[in-house]
Amino acid sequence: MTVGIISHHQCLAHQMGEHHPEAPERLNAIQDQLIRSGLDYVVKQYQAKAIDKTRLYLAHDKDYVEYIFANAPSEGDFQIDADTSMCPATLNAALLSAGAAIDAVDLVMNKEISSAFCVTRPPGHHAEHDKAMGFCFFNNIALAAIYAKTHYKLKRVAIVDFDVHHGNGTEDIIKNRKGFLFCSTYQYPFYPFEIQASNKAPIINTPLDATTKSADFRQAILDDWLPALHKFKPEMIFISAGFDAHIEDEMSQLSLIDEDYRWVTEQLKQIADSYGHGRIVSVLEGGYALNALGRSAVAHINGLIGY
């Protein structure tokens, strides 16, 4: 079956300042590499729809959602923290990003596509149930996973996160919910800093030091993620796909290469094929070196396809 790419041009309109790393050019970099690689003829492309406001309550406190809506500016900017701000286009882009993840679940569960990658922004994995932070407003991956579990009555859902930053928001939202497994690799010490290593389900946190290269990253996946995933037997896998651990990305000090993203995706696809009818939904998180981001995203998509 086909891999779907879900995006929307209005996600380009969200801006947090001229020199902010979470920039619209990130999406263009991925689309350019899709064309250059020829994958634009292989994948099926969809336009995202905005999430319904009430669906945000699956993962977020109602008062927090109201706070975001109430403070979305009609002009100028609204600063949430030093790294995170809203412009007039931000709320719409955030609703489209969350909506893309929900659309992806429906497309995969209804067998229109085998797996999906949401090429949208703003990202989401730092957004907690009642807090925006780290460039994130709504937690797209947590919303999609909770939606899949509740709407389609799944018993076991796994979320994995290979962004260089820990998915603190995702952990915050799912840590006390039954039927979820969360696995995260991340540079440590590094933003968001106060994270506890854990090798016990439902939270598998694997910190990586700043010297980590491909071999050590892959060994961490083999040692920590894969045994936990095999034991859990997920009926669906959700991927927070951040590409900022790449050696060319100045956001971090890890040294991953394009092929590492293909490799880890292939490992996850094997798990999904074994226990979840191949069902995977992936959502873009970080990745700020534009050329490396585009190449890494293509490697990730190739892993989903099985090339």
What can you see in these coordinates?
The protein is an alpha/beta fold and 307 residues long. It has one domain: Arginase, Chain A. 37% of the residues lie in helices and 16% in strands. It has eight helices and eleven strands. The strands form two sheets. Strands 2-1-5-11-10-6-7-9-8 form a nine-stranded mixed β-sheet, with helices on both faces. β8 and β9 (203-208) form a beta hairpin. α1 (25-37) packs across α8. It is globular, with a radius of gyration of 17 Å. The two termini are 13 Å apart. The mean pLDDT is 97. This is Acetoin utilization deacetylase AcuC. Residues 20-303 form the Histone deacetylase domain. GO terms for molecular function: histone deacetylase activity. Belongs to the histone deacetylase family. InterPro entries: HDACs (IPR000286), His_deacetylse_dom (IPR023801), His_deacetylse_dom_sf (IPR037138), Ureohydrolase_dom_sf (IPR023696).
Short structural summary:
The chain has a single domain, classed as Histone deacetylase domain (Arginase, Chain A), CATH 3.40.800.
Alpha plus pi helix count? 8
What is the CATH third-level topology name? Arginase, Chain A
Structural class: alpha/beta
What's the CATH H-level superfamily name?
Histone deacetylase domain
InterPro entries: HDACs, His_deacetylse_dom, His_deacetylse_dom_sf, Ureohydrolase_dom_sf
Protein name: Acetoin utilization deacetylase AcuC
Domain Histone deacetylase: 20-303
GO molecular function: histone deacetylase activity
Notable characteristics:
two-stranded antiparallel ribbon, His_deacetylse_dom, nine-stranded mixed β-sheet, 11 strands, 8 helices, His_deacetylse_dom_sf
